[in-house]
Amino acid sequence: MEYRKLGNTNLELSTITYGAFAIGGTMWGGNEAKDSVASVRASIDHGVTTLDTAPFYGFGLSEEMIGQAIKGYDRSQIQLLTKFGLVWDGTNEGKGEFFFDAEKDGKTIPVYKYASRASIMKEVENSLKRLQTDYIDLLQIHWPDTTTPISETMEALELLLQQGKIRAAGVSNYSLEQVAEAQHSLNIASNQLAYSMLNRNMEKDIVPYALQHNLGIIVYSPMERGLLTGKYFGDGKLKANDHRNAYFQQFNLAKVKTFLDTISPIAADKGATLSQLVLKWTTLQPAITTVLAGARNAEQAISNAQSIEINLTADELSHINLALSQL
C-alpha cells in the first residue's frame, strides 16, 4: 500500500480508503453485518488503514460496525474519517435545508442538511460513541448547508480541534467558492468530492486550487457505484430497492460498455480486474490524496487494496485516456 500526506496536516492516509457507505445498508439493498465487519478487517490487514464513514450511512449503523471492526487493532495506526451535517432524527427541529426523504424501517424519514454549531457538537459526541473512540482523525461536513453561515460551521470545527476531539477538519461536496469562503475562517485540510472516469468535473477548478493551496482531495464513487466494474453488463442484477437502478440511467450505457471493452485487455494483461484498473487510474490523477472504495465482503476489500500494486506505463495511460475522450 502507498500512503500520502493529507493537505496541510500530519495525517498519512492510505491511497486506497475503505468507503463505508454500503455497509450501512441505506440505499444499497442491505448487507450482512458479519461480511461488513470482515471487509473492514481485511482492508486493514492489507494496508488500507484509512476508513471513511458517516452518521447517515445506515442511520448510525456504519459507524457502529466500524467501531466494532477496529477492536484489537492499534488505534494510532488507523485513520477514522467521518462526517456531520445530515440530520434525520428530528433534533434539528425543522431547521436547516431539506435534502430528501429516506426510508427507515418502512417509514419515510426526512433528511436535512444542517450544520449549526450546536448540532455539530452533538453529532460528534454521538459519532465518538458509535466509533468507540475518543478522537476522529478527519471530520468533514457531509454536504453544504445554505441555512448556516460557513463561518459558524468552521468555528465549531476549530473548537473541536482545540478540544482534541478531531485531528483535522475538512469539507465534502463543496464548490470552489465555498472552499474559499471556508478558508477565511479555518485552514481546512481537504475536500471530498465525487470523481470518476465518467465524472471529471472537479478537474476544471478544484484541482488547480488544491495544487496551489495544498488542499487534500478525497474522492468517492470512483467506480460509479459499481458501473465501471463491468459486471452489470453481464449477469449482475440489482435488488429492487437499490438506488443504482435509477442512478445508472444518467449515463450512455452503450458507450460505457464500449469503453470498458476497450480497456479490459490492459487489465487482463496484468492479471487484474477492471475494478482494480479503474481504481489505480484514479489514484494517479493530479491532486488526489486518497480514493474511496467500498466493499461488501473480505474478498472485495482485498481486491481493492491490491489495485495499488498495478503498474501502468505511459502508453497504457495514454490508451485509457484516449478511450475516455471518446465517451
UniProtKB/TrEMBL annotation:
Record InterPro entries: AKR, AKR_Detox_Biosynth, NAD(P)_OxRdtase_dom_sf, NADP_OxRdtase_dom
Domain NADP-dependent oxidoreductase: 16-321
UniProt KW keywords: Oxidoreductase
Protein name listed in UniProt: Aldo/keto reductase
Taxonomic source organism: Sphingobacterium thalpophilum
Record lineage: Bacteria, Pseudomonadati, Bacteroidota, Sphingobacteriia, Sphingobacteriales
